[in-house]
């Protein structure tokens, strides 16, 4: 029997005491004992605080303490977060991770070791020397690959992502910069010039032929038509042969 049991409590308490605080909680709330110095006070909470886990019973819902190395837990034997210096693995808090696993200092968990993975090599680049592909016989060609999976702390390191090797090409002269463009421009101008010349010649020929035709027509119009000479035989008088 608790002294000074009261039914008119506050803070979610169903029954309470001036000396012990909450003695029972309203439905769905969890009862937990908080230590204040040498004294324990009962409180009613909607969820259990850090370091405790909740259990529900027909008559009362209680918050029970997790293990000493566990910060939060689902049950007493299943931890969800460990205290500093411990690593979580399968619901347990360990000072050292098992073989084949490594400690993740960011999540404070034991995780699988991840090794580096790289993609396939790309094709070899064209043979070059000082950034040029002509004007030399021996140069270098390069191929690259990408890292598709970075390693964890204890994983195998990543290999080189580029390779270079010597190469030999058929020596050829480098075309001067702008020379090819200049030659094409000159050819285009020459072609246009030849086309223009042919067009002018054709136009001149047509104009000359038209002028000759017009001149002949004018000459025909200005010259008088020639009269036909009379037939001498027709103008002769008949000869009298009677005498």
UniProtKB/TrEMBL annotation:
Signal peptide region: none
Pfam families linked: Furin-like_2, TSP1_spondin
Subcellular location: Secreted
GO molecular function per UniProt: heparin binding; signaling receptor binding
Keyword Glycoprotein on entry: yes
Segments of skewed composition (Basic and acidic residues): 175-203
Record-level GO BP terms: positive regulation of non-canonical Wnt signaling pathway; Wnt signaling pathway
GO terms for cellular component: extracellular region
SUPFAM superfamilies (alphabetical): Growth factor receptor domain, TSP-1 type 1 repeat
Residues annotated as domain R-spondin Fu-CRD: 11-110
Subunit structure: Interacts with the extracellular domain of FZD8 and LRP6. It however does not form a ternary complex with FZD8 and LRP6. Interacts with WNT1. Binds heparin. Interacts with LGR4, LGR5 and LGR6.
Function noted in UniProt: Activator of the canonical Wnt signaling pathway by acting as a ligand for LGR4-6 receptors, which acts as a key regulator of angiogenesis. Upon binding to LGR4-6 (LGR4, LGR5 or LGR6), LGR4-6 associate with phosphorylated LRP6 and frizzled receptors that are activated by extracellular Wnt receptors, triggering the canonical Wnt signaling pathway to increase expression of target genes. Also regulates the canonical Wnt/beta-catenin-dependent pathway and non-canonical Wnt signaling by acting as an inhibitor of ZNRF3, an important regulator of the Wnt signaling pathway.
Family from the record: Belongs to the R-spondin family.
UniProt-recorded name of the protein: R-spondin-3
Species assigned in the record: Anseranas semipalmata
Lineage: Eukaryota, Metazoa, Chordata, Craniata, Vertebrata
Gene symbol of the encoding locus: Rspo3
């Amino acid at each position: 029997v608790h002294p000074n049991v009261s039914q008119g409590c506050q803070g979610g308490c169903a029954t309470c005491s001036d000396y012990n605080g909450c003695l029972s909680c309203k439905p769905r709330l969890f009862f937990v004992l908080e230590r204040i110095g040498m004294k324990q006070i009962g409180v009613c909470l909607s969820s259990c605080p850090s370091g405790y886990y909740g259990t529900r019973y027909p008559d009362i819902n209680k918050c029970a303490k997790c293990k000493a190395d566990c910060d939060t837990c689902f049950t007493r034997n299943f931890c969800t977060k460990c205290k500093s210096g411990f690593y979580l693995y399968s619901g347990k808090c360990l000072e050292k991770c098992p073989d084949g696993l490594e400690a993740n200092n960011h999540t404070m968990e034991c995780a699988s070791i991840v090794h580096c993975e790289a993609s396939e090599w790309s094709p070899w680049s064209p043979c070059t020397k000082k950034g040029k592909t002509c004007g030399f016989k021996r140069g270098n060609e390069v191929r690259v690959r990408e890292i598709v999976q970075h390693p964890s702390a204890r994983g195998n390191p990543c290999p080189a992502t580029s390779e270079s090797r010597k190469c030999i090409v058929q020596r050829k002269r480098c075309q001067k910069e702008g020379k090819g463009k200049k030659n094409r421009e000159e050819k285009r101008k020459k072609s246009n010039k030849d086309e223009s010349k042919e067009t002018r010649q054709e136009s001149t020929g047509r104009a000359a032929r038209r002028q000759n035709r017009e001149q002949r027509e004018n000459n025909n119009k200005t010259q008088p038509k020639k009269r036909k000479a009379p037939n001498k035989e027709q103008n002769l008088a008949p000869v009298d042969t009677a005498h």
